[in-house]
Amino acid sequence: MNKLTIVFYSLALLSLMTSGCKKDYPTDEFQQKYNGKYAIVSATVNKQVDVNFDGVANTELLKEIATLKDSYLELIIRDNVKSYVFSQFWQNQFFDSVDEKIPSIYDPSIIVNYVNQATVSSFTIDQEQSKLILSRENIDSSFPLPDSVEILPNQNIKVRMSKSLYTSSGWQNVALTVVYERFIDQF
Asked: What is the pLDDT of residues 91-121, one digit of tens each?
């Protein structure tokens, strides 16, 4: 083979190799932008609720649930995978009552505690990098997936979910919007 043929085949092989190595998902870019732990910036509901039973209702849950600042979001993005891990840790209500049953109406003798629990799923990022698409094989009604997860222009994450909260007015179904800001980018 002459030198020209070798150069031609080398360039053709190099071209095939580089086009075959193209990633469908820019993992490095996603890791830099989104991987990490996120703290709650705001947590608002669509109507005023009194979940700390002080007689003052709010739409901002950070004023109502003292331990909500301990809740957070984790996005885990690993190399060579197309699906990543979404973990939202949230303060769920638990009840101390004589019969240990969930109350059906407001009862001032019942003590409400909050425990940080996780909703976990896999996720992908849409083409526009504007939302996370969550999925999981097993449905868990105790820890339902959020209704939507949006990536904001400043790379904060907005999670929308429906919740039923025990309040001083009894049970209230609310639409909850939580905005998270990344505070740790590596685990």
From this structure: 999 998 777 788 999 999 889 999 999 999 9
Q: Which positions ≥6 away from 22 have C-beta within 8 Å?
A: none
pLDDT tens digits along 162-172: 999 999 999 99
- Which of 48, 40, 122 minimizes the C-alpha distance to 78? 122
Q: Is the pLDDT of residue 9 over 80?
A: no
What type of residue sits at position 68?
Answer: L
Q: Are strands 157-167 and 170-184 parallel, antiparallel or unpaired?
A: antiparallel
HSE-up (13 A, CA, CB side) for residue 60: 7
Helix residue spans in 23-169 (DSSP H): 27-34
pTM for the full predicted model: 0.83
Q: How many beta carbons lie within 10 A of that of residue 102, not counting itself? A: 12
Residue with tokens 């904001």: 152
Give the single-character DSSP code of 67.
G
Q: DSSP of 97-112, one letter per residue?
A: -TT-PPPSS--TTPEE
How many angstroms separate the CA atoms of 54 and 136, rounded?
38
Q: For residues 113 and 82, give the distance between their C-alpha atoms in angstroms, rounded to a whole number.
A: 38
Nearest-5° angle of CA 48, CA 54, CA 57? 10
